[in-house]
Amino acid sequence: MSNPAPIDPARYPRLSRIDSPADLRRFDEGELPAIADELRAYLIESVGRSGGHFGAGLGVIELTTALHYLYDTPEDRIVWDVGHQCYPHKILTGRRDNIHTVKQKDGVAPFPKRDESPYDTFGVGHSSTSISAALGMAIANQRAGFVVSELKQVGVEATLKQIDTAQWHPMVTRREFQIGANLTGLGLDDPDANFYENYACGSPRNYGDYCSEDVSRLIEQQSQEIDQTRRLALVWQIQKKLEEDAARPTMGWRTDRFAHYPYVRNLILNQVTYNCCRLQEVWLDK
Question: Considering only CA atoms, which of 118, 95, 121 is closest in space to residue 43?
Answer without folding.
Answer: 95
